[in-house]
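Entry type: protein chain
Record version: 2
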Amino acid sequence: MKIILFSIFAFILGSIPTGQIIAKSRGIDLKKTGSGNIGATNVFRTAGKWPAVFTLAGDILKGAIAVLVGRFFEVSMFYEGVIGLSSILGHNFSVFMKFKGGKGVATSLGVLCIYSPQTALFTIIIWLMTVLITKYSSLGALVSFGILPLSIILFDSKAKLSVAFLMTIILFIRHMDNISRLFKGTEQKVGMKA
């Protein structure tokens, strides 16, 4: 029962549409602008650098807080991961946006920052390197989270593999449109205006 309650809390916390709130304060509706996504990349394209930074920080915090709550109440390592996954699903299928939402990259990083800090650092480095080389934020996410299960094996415990696999699967499902655009050569690069 405790795990169910924490997971519901995490889902609602994850559902807070940080990017949409910040963009709307500037008169921008993200669902109708740019890629239509509520994440930091679209905020950067449509509202600028600082709104994107605050969006990124808010989305990371949602995942981190969810896992911290589980840890504070001393749930098992596996259930910490489950609670973290709930916050990611909340971000992706927000109750405040008719179960639509973002791609979950920043919230997933927030979960990893608490759940597996060394893995989180490695994931961020791979993401940054990929984006700097290719200029595609989505490709950075796909590469860094595509190797997440291997990263967990290298830097943490195999006991966390199931959570890592689920995180990767969720992220890839949410990026299916991006994958299609990458193959077609129509994906927007970082810095391109909406």
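Comment: Residues 149 and 164 are 5 Å apart (CA to CA).
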